[in-house]
Amino acid sequence: MRAQRPAGAAPCIDATAENLPFADHSFDAAMAFATIDHWPDPIAGLREMRRVARRVVVFTCDPSAADLFWLNRDYLPEFAALWADRPSLSDLAEAIGARTEPVLVPWDCVDGFYHAFWRRPEAYLDEHIRSGMSIWARVGPEVENRVVNDLRADLASGRWAERNGHLAGLDVAELGLRLLVA
Questions:
Q1: Fold (CATH) for 2-181
Q2: Strand 99-106's sheet: what is its strand order?
């Protein structure tokens, strides 16, 4: 990601979440967006964020609610295995004294993160859109291809709509995403 940064971008520090090279309370706030599932030790990383910042906000998902999202439930059962040995949401919150808040995703979300296209399933067929989602690198190309092929077939046959047509009437969805705020 650092290599993709444009010339003249703000300074970038090469560090890990678990060992931040900053003094205690160096920052007013620290934020992590859809990243703690990549950290070797998320509890240590969150404690480091809390150490260097007065306020911490973390956007993550509650793995116990993964099946709220049709893509996990119907196409990507491997999602659960990615979280199998990870701390629970309550353990993460407790580690930094955070409260948890649900994050509802609007149907027209343009951010491009994994859950963003919940009401626009055809977007998951677009390689360019998927390329911005780390989940596919984590599960590998064979799984990604299987998911895309199965979804494509279900969209063409109407099966996706039979299972998930009720989503068309929703403006926002509860997909198991959470904020940790400390």
A1: Rossmann fold (3.40.50)
A2: 27-33, 53-61, 172-181, 99-106
State the Cα torsion 60-62-68-73 to the nearest 10°: 90
What tokens appear for 141 in the block?
A: 């190309």
Domain ranges in the chain are 2-181
CB atoms within 10 A of CB 139: 17
Average pLDDT, the chain: 95
pLDDT band at 83 (very low <50, low <70, confident <90, very high): confident
Task: List pLDDT tens digits, range 128-144.
Answer: 999 999 999 999 999 99
Grouping H, G, I as helix, E, B as strand and the rest as coil, residue 145 is: helix
Beta pairing, strands 99-106 & 27-33:
unpaired
Using CB atoms within 10 Å of the CB of residue 171, give its burial: 0 to 12 exposed, 13 to 18 middle, 19+ buried.
Answer: exposed
The type of residue at 55 is R
Residue 178 corresponds to which tokens in the numbers above?
A: 């959470």
What's the pLDDT score for residue 156? 98
> Does the predicted TM-score (pTM) go above 0.85?
yes
